[in-house]
Specification:
This protein has 3 helices and 10 strands; from the N terminus they run H-E-E-E-E-E-E-E-E-E-H-H-E. It is of the alpha+beta class. It has an 8-stranded antiparallel sheet with strand order 1-4-5-6-9-8-7-10, with no helix packed on it. It starts with a helix and ends with a strand.
């Protein structure tokens, strides 16, 4: 009986000693990045900023839906940028931005002053910001075409132009 008790005591003492005395470690004393130099690596250059094609301001007299967001009545700024082959439309008001990728109309049927096009239809979404016409670059950008999927909205909707200055 003495032998097993001695073994258990030694094991217990060894575990206590291991718990209270941490293993010593040594940090890497030298850093040599030249040793790991690779010949086929090039430095990363940041992507060039998107080119701004158009900037303007417009004022909404009523609440409008825009790609799932609600735009309250008030003053807004609009910026159109080119990013690769896409047009990015940014609508800004009081510290918040809505950034949308627009579909470009190949032959714009619209003309006249630059304007935001608001569709007013009979459906549950009464007013929707549908597109932007840019006189300066003769381009029509479609932002939200959800109403075009519903035949009633398409048939009975009216489009109102909100001028951009």
């Amino acid at each position: 009986m003495k032998k097993p008790m001695t073994k258990i005591t030694c094991i217990f003492a060894g575990l206590l000693l291991a718990c209270f005395l941490p293993a010593t470690t040594h940090a890497q004393s030298e850093i040599a990045p030249d040793e790991f130099k690779s010949e086929n690596m090039v430095p990363i250059t940041p992507a060039p900023p998107a080119k701004v094609d158009f900037e303007g301001k417009f004022s909404l007299p009523y609440q409008v839906q825009c790609s799932g967001s609600k735009l309250a009545p008030g003053e807004y700024t609009l910026a159109v940028k080119t990013a690769g082959t896409s047009k990015i439309v940014t609508i800004h008001r009081e510290g918040s931005d809505i950034v949308l990728t627009a579909r470009i109309a190949t032959n714009p049927s619209d003309s006249g002053q630059s304007a935001v096009l608001v569709r007013h239809g009979p459906g549950p979404r009464a007013r929707t910001l549908e597109g932007v016409y840019l006189e300066k670059i003769k381009m029509m950008l479609y932002l939200d075409e959800s109403g075009a999927a519903n035949a009633l909205d398409k048939m009975f909707a009216s489009v109102q132009r909100v001028p951009i200055s």
